[in-house]
Amino acid sequence: xxxxxxxxxxxxxxxxxxxxxxxxxxxxxxxxxxxxxxxxxxxxxxxxxxxxxxxxxxxxxxxxxxxxxxxxxxxxxxxxxxxxxxxxxxxxxxxxxxxxxxxxxxxxxxxxxxxxxxxxxxxxxxxxxxxxxxxxxxxxxxxxxxxxxxxxxxxxxxxxxxxxxxxxxxxxxxxxxxxxxxxxxxxxxxxxxxxxxxxxxxxxxxxxxxxxxxxxxxxxxxxxxxxxxxxxxxxxxxxxxxxxxxxxxxxxxxxx
Length: 256
Hints:
The protein is mainly α. It is about 70% helix and about 0% strand. It contains eleven helices and no strands. It has helices at about 1-35, 40-50, 55-65, 70-80, 80-90, 100-110, 110-120, 125-155, 155-180, 185-200, 210-230. Helix 1 (about 1-35) packs parallel to helix 8. It is globular. The two termini are about 15 Å apart. About 30% of the residues are buried.
């Protein structure tokens, strides 16, 4: 019990900075959700169980245009597939004796930031650490969305429009640095803009909903980019060990 209490304290400590950033991001998502007709409780629940900026933005956008359920589900699956990879990677940081129930719950807690601090945890990552970090950050994430929805219904329309633009700024801040460092990312980014515009006016594809076009373009462009320019990885024996992120060997037995 004393060990779990310490892990919970450490998780809350590391999760608070994440939570503060989450609140600012989901406030803008709340503005988008308000335009889609969601109430504050609906926004809180949807954000609490989703916790994905791109996935939620796509969901609220599709809800606003009354897209079909299958389009919303497909978009969420495509936008959030990376969490499956994160969960698989985190499984190597879980002690061998950890029950399948804890493993599933830890996978459900994954976000980009929670994954980052969980894999950086020295030694095996205790479930209590991931749970506490995910809980505090998720509460702020969901609360930010609910507050944004309330603000979207109270603030003047020019201010609401200005606040909604901040989310697009966040997306630009995410994609511009990688595109600046890697030409392949830049080419994929340019292709996505060009193809998105062409598909919107194409004879057949232009009749599809915007959500379906986004899903198909995401799959096609990412698949072509991965095929033409795969990321080169070094063999494990050639990699230099990292003292801060060195994962424990699986043959050392269960952590006490």
